[in-house]
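Researcher: Let's do a round of design. I'm pasting the structure tokens now; please hold your answer until I've finished.
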């Protein structure tokens, strides 16, 4: 069965029109004859959105009971039985009620897609998992309902529903989003113009990155090499010199002038060595470009201008920024330079900026001075010099007589030049040809191949021997220089790579991307299999179109161990480059092993924590639970005994002991169950607005009378909390304080408002806790000091902090002035930041910024 297609309406905030747009699309499809049903759409009592549901078939919801209430969720089984062509599923990031088929609604959607049903859904930008911290820093709200980015990225179509902050605030003021009694609070908190503008920018940039990813994939699949100036991408060519900082800052200013501009700094290391690059300076420039929001790339290339242009075209760059040459005037005899060559060959699609700087014309070493690679061009020039040079020299010397010794020195100079350019073989050819010319034209008898004077024979032999020796030495020196320079370039690349790997700064995907960039490949993939007969599996990839099934399908296949291989596509690599590629492959294997070891360590840590909890639980069961059971059993046995005639006072005392033991058991079991819920992450608070003075007095029922002083003003603002969890947390704090307070000293429970929060303080005058132990007392099964075994299993404070954090609050311990300990429970007030959407019943109780929906206005949409 073919997998269904997913279409997502993405918005920056509630009320921009996602649900309205989704329902409008459903009406359009229904009019075209498409079988379209509403699997789950929440209109949040918005009349115009509710009207859009008319005329659409709705699948009945599944009612689930939770904490005394009944809530409706999407009935996945009913939708699968109905099997429509298209299903509308609102609020993709929603958390389902406990007891539902799946924990998250996006998991329900995955089932529908797997069944071949097309799904249209909605989501807000703040619900993307990767943007949680960013949204919290902007709005002060931590989103509890999130959806993995990959789920949204895999959508076949993403449509941005956009609206200006001013228009959205007008919708809010008209009552089209929230109920009238919540409008003022929302406009002054979450829906402030600055918050909405920042969220809108996040949505636009996220969709732009998705469009950019799709564009790169399309260009790669269709082999499009022409630059498409859809976005300003500025490549900065770095040499490792001090002028690089100026170039980076200049490129950053250019990028700021265009919307969505991007800076890519690239350093191209020649395979015949670096000319004047400082590793320290390159590290500084890398940090600078990353601080300015750009990226740094390291590429190997023999022809620097060609490599730079290939990189620019590969990233679809529109501009290249280069520095004015640091060469002196006389050094231009070796060529026009990188800047002039790049400007000449860039074509009409790439603009080249030559930036002046303080290092212009101050001189720099040239590649020729460091020894050059004996490439094809140089070898051809060497042969031309070795053959044509002696002939031209012979023609010139016919007209002038300077003596045989000088003639031999000139021919020797031509031989040395041929050796410098082309190596040993052109030099040997020059020696042989020059010796024949010396014999024929300049050694008596002239114009004959015989030699009359034996001294001349010795001279020619010596000339031949000296020429061959010099040519051999020059050729060997050139090749050794090339090898040393190449090894230096390779070592610097590998040293840079190894440093990142050892510091843990490089993931497997980043490492493969580095391999792809270094060797100018289209893609790189790391394949692995369990044995020689098992199929290959891709454990990491970078680029487009990698070989995923077999290493043999790639252009370059580098084995890494017995059952691992590095596969590159793009072009074949020369043999001398495979040594560096093998080092990359070894590093990739190390990174993969480290990632797996980290995963195993995380699992082991979780198992160790679970074992610690189980061990402590067994210890608690073995003593703290058995003690009250033993007391209850002894009291019951005594009452049932016929041998003793108990008085009414004795019977009352025994019954009181039974009641106390049962209460103690109930308290211990309750804490154990609460801790288990916290450990498994199944606590789902029902957040609503409540008064502190309604809940806190109810939490004091389990402590002796006249042991607590209560100071909770009625004028405090309402707080955002779960009444049941808050009552349990305060009760645990008060019971702990009463337990450690000295006789006759009451515990003070007070509450006060501070900025946008309300603090509940539980103050005792006990022995207190040192600063080093204040965090440790909140860990499970921790009892401070010499507390007796009968004082509990050490779960009360751990449960209280867990409940506080589940409600979006905090719980900390402070010293009481004059001695003792103060527990500070801080919760969000109604006057503070609007709370995030809560799972399940929380969203039904209070509309929050995570709710989806729209009003009657048709929004502006951008389609991907």
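Researcher: That's everything. Go ahead.
Model: Designed sequence:
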């Amino acid at each position: 069965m073919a997998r269904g297609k997913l279409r997502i309406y993405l918005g920056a905030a509630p009320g921009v029109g996602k649900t309205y747009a989704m329902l409008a699309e459903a009406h359009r499809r229904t009019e075209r004859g498409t079988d379209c049903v509403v699997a789950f759409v929440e209109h949040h009592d918005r009349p115009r959105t509710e009207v859009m549901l008319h005329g659409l078939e709705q699948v009945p919801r599944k009612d689930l009971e939770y904490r005394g209430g009944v809530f409706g969720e999407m009935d996945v089984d009913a939708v699968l039985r109905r099997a429509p062509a298209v299903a509308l599923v609102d609020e993709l990031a929603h958390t389902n009620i406990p007891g539902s088929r799946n924990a998250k609604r996006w998991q329900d959607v995955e089932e529908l897609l797997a069944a071949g049903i097309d799904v249209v859904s909605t989501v807000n930008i703040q619900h993307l998992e990767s943007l949680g911290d960013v949204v919290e820093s902007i709005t002060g709200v931590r989103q509890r309902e999130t959806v993995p980015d990959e789920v949204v990225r895999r959508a076949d179509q993403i449509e941005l529903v956009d609206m200006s902050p001013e228009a959205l605030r007008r919708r809010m003021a008209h009552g089209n989003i929230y109920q009238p009694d919540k409008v003022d609070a929302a406009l002054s908190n979450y829906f402030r113009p600055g918050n909405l503008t920042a969220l809108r920018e996040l949505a636009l940039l996220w969709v732009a990155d998705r469009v950019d990813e799709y564009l790169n994939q399309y260009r790669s699949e269709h082999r499009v090499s022409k630059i498409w100036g859809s976005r300003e991408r500025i490549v900065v060519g770095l040499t490792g010199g001090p002028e690089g900082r100026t170039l980076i800052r200049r490129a950053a200013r250019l990028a700021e002038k265009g919307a969505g501009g991007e800076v890519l700094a690239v350093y191209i290391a020649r395979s015949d060595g670096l000319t004047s690059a400082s590793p320290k300076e390159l590290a500084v420039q890398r940090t600078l470009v990353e601080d300015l929001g750009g990226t740094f790339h390291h590429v190997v290339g023999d022809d620097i201008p060609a490599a730079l242009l290939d990189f620019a075209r590969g990233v679809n760059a529109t501009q290249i920024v280069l520095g004015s040459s640091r060469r002196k005037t006389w050094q231009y005899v070796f060529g026009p330079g990188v800047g002039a060559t790049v400007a000449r060959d860039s074509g009409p699609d790439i603009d080249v900026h030559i930036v002046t700087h303080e290092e212009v014309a101050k001189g720099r070493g040239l590649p020729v001075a460091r020894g050059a690679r004996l490439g094809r061009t140089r070898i051809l020039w060497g042969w031309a010099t070795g053959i044509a040079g002696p002939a031209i020299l012979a023609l010139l010397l016919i007209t002038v007589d300077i003596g045989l010794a000088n003639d031999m020195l000139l021919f020797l100079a031509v031989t040395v030049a041929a050796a410098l350019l082309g190596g040993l073989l052109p030099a040997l050819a020059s020696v042989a040809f020059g010796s024949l010319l010396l014999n024929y034209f300049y050694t008596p008898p002239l114009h004959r191949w015989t030699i009359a004077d034996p001294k001349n024979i010795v001279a020619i032999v010596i000339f031949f021997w000296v020429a061959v020796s010099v040519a051999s030495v020059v050729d060997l020196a050139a090749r050794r220089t090339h090898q040393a320079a190449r090894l230096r370039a390779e070592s610097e690349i590998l040293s840079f790579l190894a440093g990142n790997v050892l510091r843990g700064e490089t993931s497997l995907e980043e490492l493969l991307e580095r391999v792809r960039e270094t060797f100018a490949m289209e893609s790189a993939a790391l394949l692995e299999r369990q044995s020689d007969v098992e199929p290959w599996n891709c454990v990491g990839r970078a680029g487009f179109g990698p070989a995923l099934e077999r290493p043999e399908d790639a252009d370059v296949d580098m084995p890494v161990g017995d059952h691992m291989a590095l596969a590159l596509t793009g072009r074949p690599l020369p043999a001398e480059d495979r040594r560096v590629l093998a080092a990359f492959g070894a590093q990739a294997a190390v990174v993969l092993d480290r990632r797996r070891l980290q995963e195993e360590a995380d699992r082991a840590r979780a198992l160790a924590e679970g074992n610690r909890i189980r061990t402590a639980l067994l210890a608690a069961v073995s003593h703290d639970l058995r003690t009250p059971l033993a007391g209850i059993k002894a009291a019951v046995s005594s009452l049932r005994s016929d041998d003793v005639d108990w008085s009414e006072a004795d019977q009352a005392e025994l019954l009181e002991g039974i009641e106390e033991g049962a209460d103690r058991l109930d308290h211990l079991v309750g804490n154990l169950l609460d801790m288990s819920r916290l450990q498994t992450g199944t606590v789902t608070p029902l957040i609503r607005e409540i008064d502190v003075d309604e809940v806190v007095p109810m939490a004091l029922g389990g402590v002796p009378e006249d042991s607590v002083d209560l100071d909770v003003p009625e004028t405090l603002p309402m707080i955002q909390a779960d009444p049941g969890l808050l009552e349990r947390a305060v009760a645990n704090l008060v019971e702990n304080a009463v337990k450690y307070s000295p006789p006759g000293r009451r515990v003070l429970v007070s509450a006060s408002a501070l900025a946008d929060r309300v603090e509940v303080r539980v103050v005792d005058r006990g022995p207190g806790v040192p600063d080093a132990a204040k965090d440790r007392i909140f860990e499970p099964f921790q009892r401070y000091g010499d507390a007796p075994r009968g004082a509990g299993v050490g779960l009360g404070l751990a449960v209280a902090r867990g409940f506080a954090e589940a409600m979006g609050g905090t719980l900390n311990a402070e010293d009481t002035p004059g001695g003792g300990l103060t527990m500070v429970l801080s919760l969000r007030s109604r006057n503070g930041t609007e709370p995030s959407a809560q799972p399940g019943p929380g969203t039904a109780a209070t509309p929050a910024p995570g709710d989806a929906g729209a009003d009657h206005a048709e929004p502006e949409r951008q389609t991907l």
